[in-house]
Amino acid sequence: MRKIIFLVLLFICSTLAVSAQECIRVKYQGAQPTISDFAWAFLSSNDDDEEEDCVDESFNAIRAAWDTHSKGLPQEEGVTLTIDQKNGFVVYEYKSEYEDVKHLLRIEMCYWNESDGKHKLFAYNVCCFRNGECSPGQFDGLLFYRYDNATKKMTLCNDVGFDVEFGTNDGDDVAYISYALPRTGKDIILTTWYKRGKQQKTLKWNGRRFTM
Predict the structure, then answer these.
(1) What distance in Å separates the CA atoms of residue 210 and residue 212, rounded to the nearest whole number?
(2) d(CA 156, CA 169)
């Protein structure tokens, strides 16, 4: 039974990766793209794929919030969208409560400048929480794109130094895994949510990829 639960978890959390666009052009003004340019390039990448776009509720949610922000309108109840240009970070949150159960959908985007001066790494992260603990939804996931300064395109990237996983089976304890992108600093925090408690690891950025 534990194996079945674990396999179902991996299937659910792989949906985001399967639906990702392989290559995205980034349009911008000025000397180099900002986090807003990367974010909008990603959020508008599915404009020609209406069927897929309608399936991913989390993607639709942040896309709608971005459109609302662009029009200068107030966000819907429970929704916050923070665009931190200085730190190259975006976070969307939707909080709701039903029968004393608190739900949180959190979506993060950020980027890193690579040490070769020719590339940047962009990340898109979706996490769902229930009463403050990780509770993966259908579209939870972590995607990376490598941006090339010369071509002005970012390409789906799996060579980031670690394998993105969303569950682990430690004996009798099936655990979820979540990731937190940095608003300050450069490292990613990986949290493993066991029934007995949570454990955290730091994925350190070395200018090209991450190390444990």
Answers:
(1) 7
(2) 28
Residue 15 pLDDT more than 60? no
Helix (H) or strand (E) holding 83: strand 79-84
In this structure, are residues 212 and 192 in contact, taking their beta carbons and an 8 Å threshold?
no
What is the phi/psi pair of residue 51, to 5°?
-65, -45
Between 139 and 106, where is the model more confident? 106
Structure tokens at 125: 């992260």
CA atoms lying within 13 Å on the CB side of residue 121: 23
| DSSP letter for each residue of 31-48 | SS--HHHHHHHHHTTTTT
Of 9-18, 41-50, 84-93, 159-168, the range with the highest mean pLDDT is 84-93
Cα separations in angstroms, 170 against 29, 155, 164, 167, 204: 49, 34, 17, 10, 24
Confidence (pTM): 0.88
Q: Do the beta carbons of residue 19 and residue 52 sit within 8 Å?
A: yes
Query: CB-side exposure of 165: number of CA atoms within 13 Å?
Result: 14
Residue 62 tokens read as 């942040």
Which residue is associated with the tokens 């392989």?
22
Residue in 103, 85, 83 with CA at minimum distance from that of residue 94: 103
- The C-alpha atoms of residue 125 and residue 140 are separated, in whole angstroms, by 7
- Beta-strand relationship, 210-211 and 153-156: unpaired
At which residue do the structure tokens 């662009």 appear? Answer: 70
Q: What is the pLDDT of residue 103?
A: 96
